[in-house]
């Protein structure tokens, strides 16, 4: 049986909502939908690309804590509150994943957890 490893970001919401930033079981790491939210508002303000950079930094931290890296990512999901941010957020995604080339989906959603959040990204990784 594979041992489960829960990775916490330290968010106060994790125990309240009952989730982890990431979970590793065996050679698989699943990173939860991640935003640029903070107690002082969204990191990156009203700039979707800046929020995406912060989000990917947070995802990378979780991957490293679980023993992985961006190179292990096989799938991402990108959720935008405004599809007009597709190119700006896509460019940030491409800076990280341009050579890795995971499968991805980019969709527009009606809202995220707070009004100032413009982007949410999730990722799945398989360790080689």
TrEMBL record:
<dbReference type="InterPro" id="IPR006175">
    <property type="entry name" value="YjgF/YER057c/UK114"/>
</dbReference>
<dbReference type="InterPro" id="IPR035959">
    <property type="entry name" value="RutC-like_sf"/>
</dbReference>
<protein>
    <submittedName>
        <fullName>Enamine deaminase RidA (YjgF/YER057c/UK114 family)</fullName>
    </submittedName>
</protein>
<dbReference type="Pfam" id="PF01042">
    <property type="entry name" value="Ribonuc_L-PSP"/>
</dbReference>
